[in-house]
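Q: Okay, next protein. This is DUF6535 domain-containing protein from Mycena rosella. I've checked the sequence twice, so it should be correct. Can you predict the 3D structure?
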Amino acid sequence: MNNSISSGPEISIPEPTVPSIITVIGESFLYVSLFSTLLAALLVVLGKQWLLYYVVAGERACGTTEQRCLERQRKMDGMHKWKLETVLNMHPLLLQLSLLLFTAALSLHLWQTRHSIAGFVLALATVGFLLYAFLAVSPVISPDSPFRTPRADLLIAVLLAIITAVIKIFYHGKISLEHGYLVTAGNFYLGKK
């Protein structure tokens, strides 16, 4: 009996390929985008349940009208104490983050495969971003804009603080608030504070 190993066709094991850094970043963006979207969906469902629980709080309670009112007030105080409005305002932020990350990941992927399609996607994303930026800034430009959100109020506060600091530097403190509008010595107005 021959104890030698037969020399048949040689089997080659391929070297593992390492993805490029752009691919890793794109996949990371996709996973964070997916997680943010699912988290936003979960919070929306929970938020609806929380609000429904508040709405029926006075109706389910037994007792007099005064006791039901006290129960509703207790729930309302709890909503303020636990910052329910802030939690509910996180939903759009999570969805916006998801959209931004998904668009970035898609653009990165397409840029590696098809530049023409990537250019088209980037152009659409740019138009969408500019439209969103205009709608977000419109309450700063016009106080009666219907597109006011809590983020717009934050943007107004930040812009007013920046403009106030700049004006104080250049106008040597000649700045005031009249009827909720920022006024300088040169009659410069910017949205309600």
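A: Here is a summary of the prediction. The chain has six helices and two strands. Helices lie at 21-55, 57-60, 65-81, 84-113, 115-141, 150-171.
Q: Noted. On to the next one.
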